[in-house]
Amino acid sequence: MAYLSLQNLSKRFGPTLAVRDFNLEVERGEFVSFLGPSGCGKTTTLRMIAGFELPTSGKIILDGNDITTLPPNRRHIGMVFQSYALFPNLTVADNIAFGLKVAKRPPEEIRKTISEMLDLIRLTGFENRYPYQLSGGQQQRVALARALAIRPRVLLLDEPLSALDAKIRVELRAEIRRIQQTLGITAIYVTHDQEEALSLSDRVVVMYEGRIEQVGTPFEVYNYPKTRFVASFIGQLNLIPVIVEDPQQGKVRFDNNVLQVEPLPHLNRGQVVTLALRPEEMNLGTVEGRNHLQGRVLDVMFLGAIVRVRVDLQGREVLADLFNERQLTLPRPGDQVIINFPPHACWVINEA
Ligand SMILES: Nc1ncnc2c1ncn2[C@@H]1O[C@H](COP(=O)(O)OP(=O)(O)OP(=O)(O)O)[C@@H](O)[C@H]1O
């Protein structure tokens, strides 16, 4: 059996079913993210694992023991929140030592753990500072050390980076992953930021309205989304309505253009379906390949590593991404362009 097993978990708050029949198996040492829009039940699920909420139904098994109704302080779980929640009147060292002192660990062990934790979060020398003397990022690293000092069986992180600046957020993200891997600790990370979930996790649980939509590696949920929600929540997606011309040959029609996609044996001729394509699969300005569409540039957004071009394709707006390079000639609004994409880049959504 998996290290942490969530079995048919549900949570109801009055009329709201916040979490519905949630099933997940987490391996020891795995880093799993819960990703979804506000209100989809991520925090509630995390709080049930921590013991702050009792499930309305279902079970939580940790390392072979049923902990569903165990009080939080007996679960041996570490938690990091969005607000650093450090004790303002305690030094860094005393904040880190807090859980160990409550557990009445010997002073020698406490000293040793403080020193190891400071080394791990790269704040050696800061032990006598108070939280107000630290930056937000440093405070959050202390909060992480405090959660880890008790050697928890699972580390839970609830949007731990959302109060920080963009640059610190990216730095600390890498730090969290490094520390998690160094300790081999099992971690569950709640976020509504897809980039954070994709970059940190071994697996991502995509949630919507209290339900799991898909569980998979970052590669799987991005490249092989199982539902329309997952496809549109993670990354950008172009949707183009087309009519099936020849299902066996994978030919579809968009206005007067016949497009080649992969064979669609489960569909019928004449059916209206939606082609879904990522912006990075749309090539701009070349006539190679099998599918070309005429378009007109609406606007150009320079994002650094990529340039995102919004194009009008005969009344339908799509996004096409170019890789930035210094020699690039940027398209301009009003330019006539050709968009092409390979047959294997599109998937077909059939909503009928
Ligand atoms: N204590 C509570 N009492 C009543 N309703 C609650 C309570 N806690 C959460 N809810 C409701 O349950 C649903 C799920 O909330 P939850 O906080 O788990 O979502 P979330 O995905 O973590 O959202 P966010 O990203 O905004 O924190 C929401 O509709 C919320 O209003």
UniProtKB/TrEMBL annotation:
Keyword list (alphabetical) reads: ATP-binding, Cell membrane, Membrane, Nucleotide-binding, Translocase, Transport
- SUPFAM superfamilies per record: MOP-like, P-loop containing nucleoside triphosphate hydrolases
Key word Transport present: yes
Question: What InterPro entries is this protein classified in?
Answer: AAA+_ATPase, ABC_SmlMolc_Importer, ABC_transporter-like_ATP-bd, ABC_transporter-like_CS, Mo/tungstate-bd_C_term_dom, P-loop_NTPase, PotA-like, Transp-assoc_OB_typ2
Look up keyword ATP-binding and say if it applies. Answer: yes
> Which reaction does this enzyme catalyse, per its entry?
ATP + H2O + polyamine-[polyamine-binding protein]Side 1 = ADP + phosphate + polyamineSide 2 + [polyamine-binding protein]Side 1
Q: What is its EC number?
A: 7.6.2.11
The protein's GO terms of the molecular function aspect are:
ATP binding
Which PROSITE patterns does the UniProt record give?
ABC_TRANSPORTER_1, ABC_TRANSPORTER_2
Which top class of enzyme applies to this chain?
A: translocase
User: Per UniProt, what is one Pfam family of this protein?
Assistant: ABC_tran
**Residues covered by the ABC transporter domain:** 4-234
Q: What does this protein do?
A: Part of the ABC transporter complex PotABCD involved in spermidine/putrescine import. Responsible for energy coupling to the transport system.
> Subunit notes for this chain?
The complex is composed of two ATP-binding proteins (PotA), two transmembrane proteins (PotB and PotC) and a solute-binding protein (PotD).
- What protein family is recorded? Belongs to the ABC transporter superfamily. Spermidine/putrescine importer (TC 3.A.1.11.1) family.
Tell me what this protein is called: Spermidine/putrescine import ATP-binding protein PotA
Q: Which organism is it from?
A: Thermanaerothrix solaris
Q: Give the source lineage, highest ranks first.
A: Bacteria, Bacillati, Chloroflexota, Anaerolineae, Anaerolineales
